[in-house]
Structure formats: structure tokens, C-alpha cells
Design a protein that fits this description.
The complex is a heterodimer of chains A (about 350) and B (about 250). Chain A is about 80% helix and about 0% strand. Chain A contains 14 helices and no strands. Chain A is globular and about 60 Å long. Chain A starts with a helix and ends with a helix. Chain B is α/β, with parallel strands linked by helices and about 250 residues long. Chain B has 10 helices and 12 strands. Chain B has 2 domains: about 170 residues, P-loop containing nucleotide triphosphate hydrolases (Rossmann fold, 3-Layer(aba) Sandwich); about 70 residues, no CATH class. Chains A and B meet through helix 9 and helix 10 of A and helix 2, strand 6, helix 3 and helix 5 of B. The structure holds adenosine-5'-triphosphate and magnesium ion. Magnesium ion binds next to helix 1 of chain B. Chain A: It is found in: Cell membrane. Chain A: Its main location: membrane. Chain A: It is a multi-pass membrane protein.
């Protein structure tokens, strides 16, 4: 009799994983994704290397590809983690930082830099200082934009989205206006900066980007339990004692840091994070951010490396990776939106 | 130690003003908040629960100012459930109720927490449904799951906005009996918005009647259950008769 009481007590638990089946599924998916990630990484590194295996040039090529892969990993971490955290904060699984005007913010900052400094100034703007300056500008502006949008000033999500899109549009025209006054060579410099490209990502930024990303992700990881509660919405979170407004500002600042880092590396991407997060919700089926984050990251990394592998090694169009991923992500976005039928 | 409201006011617009309200809700026992639609019951309740900013005035719960005290500390003495609830996260009943322990566990559930969770679930007869997802429940079952979450929070003060919404007769009576028990046996203070005046009269110790943003009456059920008083509050002809279990308001 005591034994039955004991076993029922054991079965009654409340964790983020509901039962053995759920656990098995989560582990299985993570294993498959992990294997795919390792396989693709290996494939990208070694496939079709023209030099003799093991020779110096061979290692050189592998090293260059390794830099691309590290960039991909950083970008995947940034977009996946940022999008999951952002969607938790806005309590909506359609909106992303990109949709809410982040890309336009980046464009306006870059355009302003070229506009004010000219070709000479802008091309001189490489290295740590300018990188950090540009990051700081993006983070500050994006944090202000997002916390303002989320301040509860807008009674519903539609108005908030509309305001976000309009702000994006206004910033876009502002950039357009400045771009018209640039000389052709200035415009060239600018276009090179605006278009995302993994093949010639700014790998020299990696030594600064990686520590930033590691610290931000660690901070979000430690806040994961609070994020789980925030996902329940404002009033429930407040009832449970979360300092809601303060937490939102912190989350938005961390999200902005991540997206700004990824954008500085490869340019704006709107839908990669959406793709990774949506797949993680679907396959993870859990409220726990500690389980969602790793899965979203693996999805993001696998998708990016797979596109990179196919486009670079098979179709010889390495520059188009971000474009193709955005195309797929945008389509998935539309499908999800149409199937849900609401925001 | 009780809930006190001093000159509490909320101005939604020039026309819609709630308050000023000055009153004291006794600790221990059940206080029912009644009144017509739009009277300001939810507004007052959510302000006590610090979910809505107060324009002027102060509210204290157990001596603590709800606006200025840390939200973390308030969450251990007061829990509040709103009229409408909706989550984007997909949760089972048990996971939802588990969140009620957050103020105490900060998300790391101990065996002790699991005990509170099981108790709250059993208390609301959700034991068989505990592993179901919320989107697989009926409206009334979901409503009970929300109340279970608030009870698992195990606070001295519990504020509930129309928790009988969607409940059938059996479950409405059960819930009121359970809330009564929580007040009598565990010494909880329960403030509850009710639309059924007969439920309010039978199960509560005090009734707080609101109309047009003001408190118009605050007293025992016997004081409120009068023809003129009820007719005045609800803008509709009410007759109080002697029922088998006390006064009964007939308004149809
Ligand atoms: N966010 C808001 N903005 C403007 N007016 C509001 C808002 N919320 C409530 N009101 C108004 O304030 C008044 C009181 O609303 P409240 O929700 O407190 O009423 P209630 O007594 O709970 O009514 P019910 O029985 O219908 O739940 C109503 O006239 C309502 O229209
Ligand atoms: Mg109400």
C-alpha cells in the first residue's frame, strides 16, 4: 500500500518535461540536430578542397572556412536566442526584432556614418573602436525603441506592430534620402556594408563579438526562470512577483546586444531567428527557456550551415547564403501567419 | 492586519472615474465584491493586487504599501487572479499550478513545492486532469486550474475576479465551499468578485457593494440583503425572501 502511494508521488511532478515520451523526443531531436551540425561542420571544412590533404595550403583553406563557420555559429546563437527572448517579452510568437525595425535602424546608422564621414572616413572606420561605437549606437537606439513599444502605451499588439512597421518605414526613407545625396563611390562603400554576406564576414570582429555574445547568453541563461514566468504575460508575471517593467528593459537591452552583434558581422537578417524559434517551440514543446534556447540555436546553426554547404560547395554561390535563408524564413513566416490566421 | 484603501482613485477618462474609495477589508474570512457591470470591481481588485497603477491614494496589505514594497515580497503574501487569462505558452495543468510556487522557489521546485502543487490540484478536483494541456480543457476546468495556481501560491491574501465564471452549479458550490474552508481552516483572507448575490450572501462574511465607481455599501450579508438596498445597487427590482438556507434575493 505504501509502495503505490510512493510511486504516485513520484509520478506527480511539475517539470518542463511532462513524461518519459516527451523526454525521449527532446533528446532524440537534440541528438539528430547535434549530429547534423557536426556532420555539416565537417563537410563544409573538408569538401572539395583543391589542395592536397594535410598540406599547408589545405590547412589554410580549412582555416578560412573555419572562420566562416565560427561566424555562422555566432550569428545563429545571436538570432535564435534573441528571438526566443524577444517573443517571450512581447508575449507573441510572430513578432521578431527584425520585423520591429531593427534592420532599418542598422541601415540608418550605417548610412549616417557614410553620409557624415564620406568614403575616406567610412573606410577608415574599421577596427575595434568603430565596431564598438556602432554596436553601442544600435543597442541604445533599439533598447529605447523596444521598451517604448512595450511600455503598455499601445493597447493591442496590432497597433504595436503597426507603429513598429511605420517607424521602420520612416527610418528607411530617412536612409533613402541620405543615400540619394551620396557620391557613387560612397554608395558603393555603403552597399557593401548593408548586404549580409557570410563568405566575407568581418572575421576581424570575432574576437570582440564572441565574448559579448557569451556574456549576454549567460545573463539570459541565468534569467531563464524569470523568462518562463514572463512568458505567461504581464499580469500573471506581476502577480508572481516579477518586477515586470525592469525585467523588460533588461531583456530588451540583452536582445538588442545580440542582434546588433549579428548585424555587425553579416548585416541584417529578418527571419533566421523566427525560423529557429518557431521550430524550437514546435519540436521542443516546452515552456522552459533552458530547453528552448539550445534547440533554437542548433536549428539556426544547422539551417545556416546546410545552406552554406549547398550554396557554396554545390552551386558555387556562397554570397547568397543569407539571402536564401531569409527567403525560406520569410516563406515559413507567411505560412505560419496564414495558418494561425492572427498575430 | 487587513487591506486598507485610502482615497484610492483611478481616472480612465473625464467621464469614467473610479473612486475615491476609502475602506478597510477585514483580515480573515471572505469578502464579496458585488455591483453592476462597469461598477469598478475589477479596477479596485487589480489595484489592490498592484496589477494596475493607482492614480491617487494608497493601498496597504498587511501593513505594506502595495505600490512601494518590492513586488517579490508582496507576491508571498498576496495573490490575484484576473477575469481574463490567456497564455501563449503551451502548459499542462500541473505546470501552470507549479508556476504558483515561483515566489517561493524562484523556479527551482522542491519536494515541498510539489506537495503544495498536488494539494492545490486535489483541492479543486483536477487530479485526473493534471497532465492535460490547458488548450484541451473546457472553460470551467481551465478556470479551476487558474484558481489552483493562485492557491498554490499559498498567500495570506487571495484576490479573485469572478472565479465562478464558466463553472456549473456543482463546481461553483464546490469552489465556494473550498474558499470558505481556506478562510476558516487556514485563516486566509479572500476577496472575491461575485455576480450572484445569493452566493455572496451565503458564503461571505462581508459584502462590499460598488456602483458607478464608488463603494455604496459595506456590511454583513444581513445588512445588504434588503429589498431597498439591493434594488438601489443593481438598478433592478429585487425582493428578498426567506429561503431554506437564509435570505434569498429574487430578481427575475
Ligand atoms: N483600460 C480601460 N480604459 C478605459 N476605461 C476602462 C478600462 N478598464 C475599465 N474601464 C472602465 O471602467 C469602468 C469600471 O470597469 P471595471 O472593469 O472595473 O468594472 P467591473 O465592475 O469589473 O465590471 P464587470 O462586472 O463587467 O466585470 C467601466 O466603465 C469600464 O468601461
Ligand atoms: Mg470585472
Amino acid at each position: 500500500m505504501f509502495k503505490t502511494a510512493d510511486t504516485t508521488q513520484q509520478q506527480r511532478h511539475s517539470g518542463p518535461i511532462t513524461d518519459r515520451k516527451h523526454m525521449r523526443r527532446y533528446v532524440l531531436i537534440m541528438t539528430i540536430l547535434g549530429a547534423l551540425a557536426v556532420g555539416l561542420t565537417f563537410g563544409v571544412m573538408t569538401w572539395d578542397n583543391p589542395a592536397e590533404t594535410g598540406s599547408r595550403p589545405w590547412w589554410l583553406i580549412v582555416g578560412m572556412r573555419r572562420d566562416s563557420l565560427i561566424t555562422i555559429a555566432v550569428v545563429a546563437v545571436c538570432h535564435a536566442v534573441a528571438t526566443v527572448a524577444f517573443q517571450t517579452a512581447v508575449n507573441n510568437r510572430i513578432l521578431t526584432p527584425g520585423i520591429m525595425g531593427f534592420g532599418s535602424l542598422y541601415t540608418v546608422i550605417q548610412t549616417t556614418a557614410v553620409f557624415l564621414l564620406g568614403v575616406g572616413g567610412a573606410t577608415a572606420l574599421v577596427g575595434v573602436g568603430p565596431f564598438l561605437l556602432q554596436m553601442a549606437a544600435m543597442v541604445v537606439l533599439a533598447t529605447i525603441l523596444y521598451t517604448w513599444l512595450l511600455s503598455g502605451r499601445f493597447s493591442n499588439i496590432h497597433i504595436m506592430l503597426l507603429v513598429g512597421v511605420v517607424i521602420g518605414g520612416v527610418l528607411g526613407s530617412l536612409s533613402n534620402f541620405m543615400q540619394r545625396m551620396l557620391t557613387p563611390s560612397e554608395f558603393d562603400v555603403l552597399t557593401a556594408r548593408l548586404f549580409g554576406n557570410i563568405s566575407n564576414a568581418r572575421a576581424d570582429y570575432l574576437p570582440y563579438a564572441i565574448p559579448i555574445v557569451l556574456v549576454v547568453v549567460a545573463l539570459l541563461w541565468f534569467r531563464a526562470n524569470t523568462l518562463n514566468v514572463i512568458a505567461l504575460g504581464r499580469t500573471t508575471a506581476q502577480n508572481l512577483g516579477v518586477a515586470y517593467k525592469r525585467e523588460l528593459i533588461i531583456i530588451m537591452a540583452l536582445v538588442s546586444l545580440l542582434v546588433a552583434t549579428a548585424t555587425a558581422l553579416v548585416g541584417p537578417m529578418m527571419f533566421l531567428g523566427f525560423l529557429a524559434a518557431t521550430l524550437a517551440y514546435q519540436f521542443g514543446d516546452t515552456y522552459s527557456h533552458r530547453l528552448l534556447f539550445p534547440m533554437a540555436v542548433l536549428f539556426g546553426y544547422t539551417i545556416l550551415t546546410a545552406s552554406y554547404f549547398v550554396l557554396r560547395h554545390i552551386w558555387d554561390a556562397g554570397g547568397a547564403v543569407t539571402v536564401i535563408v531569409e527567403l525560406i524564413g520569410g516563406l515559413v513566416f507567411l505560412i505560419v501567419l496564414l495558418r494561425k490566421g492572427r498575430l | 492586519m487587513s487591506i486598507t484603501l485610502t482615497d484610492v482613485q483611478k481616472d480612465y477618462s473625464d467621464k469614467v472615474q473610479i473612486g475615491p474609495v476609502t475602506t478597510e477589508i477585514q483580515s480573515g474570512g471572505v469578502t464579496a465584491l458585488v455591483g453592476p457591470n462597469g461598477a469598478g470591481k475589477s479596477t479596485i481588485l487589480t489595484m489592490i493586487g498592484r496589477l494596475l497603477d493607482i492614480d491617487t491614494g494608497t493601498i496597504t496589505v498587511a501593513g505594506q504599501d502595495v505600490v512601494n514594497s518590492p513586488s517579490k515580497a508582496i507576491a508571498k503574501i498576496l495573490s490575484v487572479l484576473r477575469q481574463e487569462n490567456h497564455f501563449v505558452t503551451r502548459l499542462t495543468v500541473r505546470q501552470l499550478v507549479g508556476f504558483g510556487r515561483f515566489p517561493h522557489s524562484r523556479g527551482r521546485l522542491t519536494i515541498g513545492d510539489e506537495k503544495y502543487i498536488s494539494e492545490a490540484i486535489d483541492f479543486l478536483n483536477l487530479t485526473d486532469l493534471e497532465n492535460r494541456y490547458l488548450d484541451q480543457l473546457s472553460g470551467g476546468q481551465r478556470q479551476r486550474a487558474y484558481v489552483a495556481m493562485v492557491l498554490a501560491q499559498n498567500t495570506d491574501y487571495v484576490l479573485l475576479d469572478e472565479p465562478l465564471n464558466n463553472l456549473d452549479m456543482q463546481h461553483a458550490v464546490q469552489m465556494m465551499k473550498q474558499l470558505r474552508r481556506a478562510a476558516d481552516e487556514l485563516g486566509r483572507t479572500i476577496v472575491i468578485v461575485l455576480h450572484d448575490i445569493n452566493f455572496a450572501a451565503h458564503y461571505s462574511d462581508k459584502i462590499l457593494a460598488m456602483k458607478d465607481g464608488k463603494v455604496v455599501k459595506h456590511g454583513t450579508p444581513a445588512e445588504i440583503m434588503q429589498n431597498e438596498v439591493l434594488t438601489e445597487i443593481f438598478n433592478t427590482e429585487v425582493n428578498v425572501i426567506d429561503g431554506p438556507k437564509g435570505p434569498l434575493a429574487v430578481y427575475y
